[in-house]
Write a structure and sequence with these properties.
- Helix content is about 75%, strand content about 0%.
- The chain is mainly alpha-helical and about 70 residues long.
């Protein structure tokens, strides 16, 4: 996974690519939470980066859904 997910870069990806990226970030988030709970987490800032990346992807997917629903009306 990329360390910094820029919104402009994400907007160029297809819906399937975004969903795949979202799945990967969710898995990474789970692993980071598990490491934090067991005291093995070294890079605590990564948790925040992953959470924000998930939010960015979900926002862009929502924008795409809104755009497609407006064009079908």
């Amino acid at each position: 996974m990329a360390n910094s997910l820029k919104a402009a870069d994400l907007r160029t990806k297809s819906r399937d690519e975004l969903k795949e990226e979202l799945l990967g970030l969710r898995k990474e988030s789970f692993n980071l939470r598990f490491q934090a709970a067991s005291g093995q987490l070294e890079n605590t800032a990564r948790c925040r980066q992953v959470t924000r990346g998930i939010a960015r992807i979900k926002t862009i997917l929502g924008e795409q859904n809104t755009a497609t629903s407006k064009t079908t009306l």
